[in-house]
Amino acid sequence: MNRRHALRHIALISGGLALIPSCDFSKDDILAAYKNLKVTSSQKTLLAAISDTIIPAGEIKGALDLEVPDFILVMVNDCFTKENQEKFSAGLIAFPDYVQKTAGKKFDALSTKEKEELILNGTKLEGDDTPEGKERGNIAYFLNSTKRFTIQGYMASEYIQTEIIPYSLIPGEYNGAVLISDLQKPRING
Fold it and tell me: What is the rounded CA–CA span in Å between residue 90 and residue 73?
């Protein structure tokens, strides 16, 4: 009788041990999720610096604290067409050269004000059919997409939806006797 229980327990334990490697949810698996973009770690760091410039940390968490760069890369990988993925990647690759030409320094060496101006001017670039024009168009596309996904990922994060702007799936009860001026405004700025 004890032998049967021992064999049953050994079978359950060995089956559980066989399943454990498939339950790995480490960040390395997330990096494999956007291999279509062929993003290097230095490019991911640059993307993180850009998203942190767009929404910096202050009294509330910033984009970098909420892992928005991962959201950006997953959205580009999963939602963009192949052509748009190539434009995004080309803009990401060309952005350091654009920064060097425009500011004379690397992006990390710039002050916050210079980074903001550089990103703002980069979103307004216009492309044409020349190789330099295509590069400018790719940079503008990359920066505009990054800005849009940074804001979307930040506003859709659990931290913002639960702690800053309390999300209510179903509005509370209706009370017609309460004046609008008496209602508490949502904390949209922390």
Answer: 14
**Closest Cα to residue 70, out of 41, 106, 108?**
41
Q: What is the DSSP letter of 142?
A: H
More confident residue, 39 or 147: 147
Return the residue matching tokens 């903001």. Answer: 116
Q: Give DSSP secondary structure letters for 74-88.
A: HHHHHHS-HHHHHHH
- Whole-number Cα distances in Å, 94 to 9, 59, 61, 135, 156: 58, 33, 29, 7, 29
pTM for the predicted model, two decimal places: 0.73
- Residues whose CB falls within 8 Å of the CB of residue 189, separated by 6 or more in sequence, listed in order: none
Q: Could you read off the pLDDT of 95-104 as tens digits, one per residue?
A: 999 999 999 9
Spacing of C-alpha 10 from chain mean position: 44
- Rounded Cα gap, residues 64 and 14, in angstroms: 41
- Cα atoms found within 13 Å of the Cα of residue 133, Cβ hemisphere only: 5
> What residues contact residue 68 under an 8 Å CB cut-off, 6+ apart?
51, 55, 149, 150, 153, 154, 157
